[in-house]
Write a structure and sequence with these properties.
Layout (H helix, E strand, L loop, with lengths): L2 E2 L5 E2 L6 H38 L1 H5 L1 E3 L2 E2 H36 L1
Antiparallel strand pairs: 1-2, 3-4
Helix pairs in contact: 1-3
Amino acid sequence: MATTDPDGRRDPRGEAAPGRAARFEELARARRRMALTLTAVMLVVYFGFIALVAWGKETMGREVVDGLSVGILLGVITILAVFGLTLFYARWANSHELDVDENRRS
């Protein structure tokens, strides 16, 4: 089945132009690397927190200031890490989206 690219050119084999396919594959690899890296970071943060809850009860129970324990503080930091990594990824993905859009136009 023939396909039409954004410029209106037709490829009878149904494949994208070689340069475009290579650029798309490069962007897909970059996205995969970023996703795996951020997943690994979040797993370390989360399981580090869980390990402290399981084996560092005395440390987690220690008060930083009156009414605020290390456990509560680290729990909030863990949740904020989720939002921070999500914001980082969204900005990274949006900056690379421009590359995809430019790739479609060329």
